[in-house]
Amino acid sequence: xxxxxxxxxxxxxxxxxxxxxxxxxxxxxxxxxxxxxxxxxxxxxxxxxxxxxxxxxxxxxxxxxxxxxxxxxxxxxxxxxxxxx
Length: 85
What we know:
Oligomer: single chain
Helix content: 40-55%
Order of helices and strands: EEEHHH
């Protein structure tokens, strides 16, 4: 299992901590942001693949912002994949 931390940009959350096993997300802990929504998102992501999460979350916007916490999760996972090459 691998762990990594991502500092999201342009959203209310300030930190995203991931535990990944192969291509599966084991755990996500998000600091800041909307607690109930992000806790729910974190639970939904357990045992999802990185690819399906990126496909579902990439491009999601929050209000008038150009990004969102789900979009930043996709950014984090794409960054993680780049470090695994």
